[in-house]
Amino acid sequence: MGVGDVAKRVLLGRKLRSSQLGETLLPKRIALPVFASDALSSVAYAPDEVFIMLSLAGASAYVWSWKIGIAVALVMAAVVASYRQTVHAYPSGGGDYEVATVNLGATAGTTVASALLVDYVLTVAVSISSGAQYAASAIEVLRGHEATFATILVVVLMAINLRGIRESGTFFAIPTYAFMAATLGMCAFGLLRLAGGSLPQVESAELDIEKAPGFEGSLTTFALMFLLARAFSSGCAALTGVEAISNGVPAFRRPKSKNAATTLFMLGAIAITMMLSIIVLAKQMGLRYVDPHDLDRLTQNGEPLPDGYDQHPVIAQIARAVFNDFTPGFLFVVTVTGIILVLAANTAFNGFPVLGSILAQDGYAPRALGSRGDRLAYSNGIVFLALMAIILIQVFNAETTRLIQLYIVGVFVSFNLSQLGMIRHWTRRLKSEKDAGERARMYRSRVINTVGLTFTAVVLVIVLITKFLAGAWITILAMIVFFAIMRAIRRHYDNVSLELAADEEDKIMPTRVHAIVLVSKLHKPTLRALAFAKATRPNVLEGVYVAVDAGSTDRLLQEWDDRNLGVPLKVLFSPYREVVKPIIDYATQIRKANPRGVVAVYIPEYVVGRWWEQLLHNQTALRLKGRLLFTPGVMVTSVPYQLRSSELARDREEREQGRVRAGDVRRGRVDRTSSDHQVQR
Amino acid sequence: MGVGDVAKRVLLGRKLRSSQLGETLLPKRIALPVFASDALSSVAYAPDEVFIMLSLAGASAYVWSWKIGIAVALVMAAVVASYRQTVHAYPSGGGDYEVATVNLGATAGTTVASALLVDYVLTVAVSISSGAQYAASAIEVLRGHEATFATILVVVLMAINLRGIRESGTFFAIPTYAFMAATLGMCAFGLLRLAGGSLPQVESAELDIEKAPGFEGSLTTFALMFLLARAFSSGCAALTGVEAISNGVPAFRRPKSKNAATTLFMLGAIAITMMLSIIVLAKQMGLRYVDPHDLDRLTQNGEPLPDGYDQHPVIAQIARAVFNDFTPGFLFVVTVTGIILVLAANTAFNGFPVLGSILAQDGYAPRALGSRGDRLAYSNGIVFLALMAIILIQVFNAETTRLIQLYIVGVFVSFNLSQLGMIRHWTRRLKSEKDAGERARMYRSRVINTVGLTFTAVVLVIVLITKFLAGAWITILAMIVFFAIMRAIRRHYDNVSLELAADEEDKIMPTRVHAIVLVSKLHKPTLRALAFAKATRPNVLEGVYVAVDAGSTDRLLQEWDDRNLGVPLKVLFSPYREVVKPIIDYATQIRKANPRGVVAVYIPEYVVGRWWEQLLHNQTALRLKGRLLFTPGVMVTSVPYQLRSSELARDREEREQGRVRAGDVRRGRVDRTSSDHQVQR
Q1: Is residue B662 part of a domain?
Q2: Which is nearest to A513 in space by CA: A597, A590, A447, A576?
Q3: Which residues constitute the domain of residue A550?
Q4: Which of A 572-631 lie inside 8 A of B, CB atoms?
Q5: Which of its termini does chain A have fewer beta carbons within 10 Å around, N or C?
Q6: Choosing among B358, B384, B507, which should be mutated to test the A contact, i.e. which has the most A CBs within 10 A?
């Protein structure tokens, strides 16, 4: 346990045990909130972006808003339909990465992986930034400090995930269902009032929007098309997170794929309903919404607005008006929206380690990430994710509108490759499938995926054209960097694999073992090391002592003789108090004298339980081990001696081992006892 | 090589080799500059402090200045004479710590050690702050930024010492001799002009000093005594660093003690001459010098000075006047003074690791500090020293006058305990000595040390009375903290020692060895581990594989059979991709089945050369080793397989090993080849 751990412990208290995880896989009613928060939370910012884009051409362009909403809804329907095919075909939770790798090859797979890595960072940055804006719309004092508040939120999320949090059950269900209820309820109430003709206006309805420079006068058809394309591509931010379920199939109750597909359908239906309702309501309630950088384009009776004017997010404005300034209603809607945005960010903290683990298994990430329980690698991933998100938040001042420009390109890159992969998948399956019913289903699936690809390809092209200079280039650059790193890691593993490929001569056994036991004092650890070394019956066994001063050397030699150990003691002189080098030199010398033998170095080690004790012991042993490993023909044996305090560490390790890890739930990892790795011959 | 090392390498370039150290012990003419810079540099600030203190009672109190100078000189003479006894009696370089420990016991020894630790920090802070003031007196733009400049200087010194610097020869000799020549030359020239009646006035001579609040009117005898006591105790800052030679005796040429004593005498003579000359000149040249916080007490013709007035250090003022504003002369004096102050700070960087090493040998500091070559422990010490000094510099805004209040108490605590120890030493020696001539010499030595103790005890009392509230309490608090830490470390080592004391049953040999070789793949490292394990002829030998997915398990089992290894393979299932726990459980199980046997776990390890390769390999092995050590009855053997890139690391390690360390020179460590640790039976 390092100093950092102590700090973490003090900061975060005791850790959750995985036995608290709950014992079952997720039923649909729980899986929906667990996996839906990312996708559903998009309605908190996607409609806003549509209105911002259209506002460039003045409020009159808002007539296009619901048409754009329908276009986005169509794309979402196509994507949801496509992913329903994926969860059936690839129920292992590998998601887009697996689909692309299996069907299109490693390059496509790593491209998807880079896109996903970037997206996780952006999910955190965008969701938290949007959440900070909602918070600021309800809490006056936060206004102007959104970036700071967002950064604090990310740090808190990081801390919670470092500690280990149970991502399941009520923790997700209550706020997610509350959000659905609040938003759908608000929309229903609003639409009822619309039908009854009593729909009020939002606070910004009395404002006018001046057209942005370049949009004065009537637009050319091309300019209009381009504007609508931009609005549409911004609106497609609503699709982010739809793919989450395809990565979480193992967490579902059986029949997993079917339940996942049903949940996906529910998610799509709810998301589309919410988004369209909000856009229609906002339009009908006279919303005026511009880029927060262009607030001076908002005017009231031809006069510019006062300096302190604050533009609240669309849902906040609708909530305030629909509930006729009934503050509890407004506060409830805004609060649950803020919470679901934080939950959406949290899904990234859960998805990131899962992706890291899958990449590690394929050799694209450090192998240690691949096995559960490498706390360090795992923590590093979470810290890295938080850090990148904080940088983005700070650089873009927590402005969702700016961050959105970076967001969508990654999502659609993986959508596209995944759809293309699915088409290949069906084509391949069709080659071997004979059953007519199966074939019909496959044809149908292929058509769905083809439609999906067509839609997402169009969106990707539009996104690239409209957003490249606005920020998508940053995402693409980051993807290239991730891609290059993953390929380099894989290349390194491949090279090592080649270098290490076994041949026949590797079986040759050393002809003799020359064992040396390092002696610093004649105490229990040394005696144990001597006994263990003796038990291995080496050809030669001797103690080795590095003499740094005459007094202790004499005492040791005397004691050695008195104890009658039956093992000779070799004394290496080291006038300058160096300990490591004489031993290395001696080992090298033995090996030179007998190149076909092996030198076994036994190091007695103290096992202690407290981090500061670690600083006081074993430092020389550690250094020596590190150096000896570079000496060919040497093997290094640590003979541990457990001091009483080591029990502290063992207990801690066991607690640590049983700790919940982010991503556990979505991998379908449930409670287990230590007896579940059966030993088999 | 960690990331930090890479940064260091980029920052600092290649490291010095110890073969560049020079091959000989130090002759007196080189030893003097190496050890004198700390003591001699004190004249750059000690006289200033005397004048500042006296100025409280107005310029008229300056009549006392040279009398105080003589009092300080007397104390210095007594201290030098005392330390000449020490270098003869304790030539091993243990200095005050050794004297106090041997003669007064461990408590006195650790008290001295705490005092020395605090003093090293203060030496850096005071010398560098004073150096920054000299730099500011010559370089206009630095004025007002002394603390920043001083911090930068400390960081540069830290970097140089982390890299390893040769502390010998011309590096020290040229600037130190230049400083002596410049200062003594300036003083001689000034005194000549004084004799000839042509001594000019310093720039501040035309100013008046208003008495400080509380000192108006004529002083009571008590108030005057107290003022003189304060001035005297500040002047005693001139004594700091005198003890350095007693820690460096091993570095001298033979006869070491005699040469060290002679050098000490020369040092004392030069330091006294310089200090007295400077005080006399300053007084005669009409210096007006006040606390830099009280510049408003300086007036000109009754008017306060303009805001921008800058008070230059005493030596700078004298130099400017003596050389009649001949700028090169002034610049030379100020430059060499600045340089020697930096060298003085550097001696602390050299002394700190030496003290740490001695404390480690006695169990008061982490044992790793005791052997040369623990780069990490050693670097941590240097960074710690620099950090503490920077904190002091920042807190006290690099004001020498403030820092001096903290400085002297530590020095005089160790002076006192050391003198007391020497008196005990002679008394003890006299009990057994028969030879009349020897006895006479011992009596004489004891008288000298008694005089030394009397003087230093008086100074310590005066310092405590006059400076406790002004800052000495900080030093005392820090000493208490260091003291407590050292005792706690020692107590821990003692407890462990007790827990580990050997008894007869420890010799009992395990009855059987059950060896398991961890298998992840069937490649060269695994085959080598199997061969090595086989060579130790255990009672049972088996490969152990943790199966995380069926595909790779089948492939491995197939290959295992094909290769006909003659060793069974045990497969442990781990559905949740955990690797460590199944192995721990299995080892525990074997041990339980045979409590008198030992489980030998062989781990094939990749040895790589680049830090990032380290991240990609062995992480699981590392974690596993850490956990296995907590399992009783298990020994863990690393069987290294050196990848080609490991040669890079081996080369680097060898360069590292040959690197110069701060403190090498003063421990008398000279060039050596790898053949100098003879192997003896």
Answers
A1: no
A2: A597
A3: 510-642
A4: 572-582, 585-586, 589, 598, 600, 602, 605-607, 613, 615-617, 619-620, 623, 625, 627-630
A5: C
A6: B507
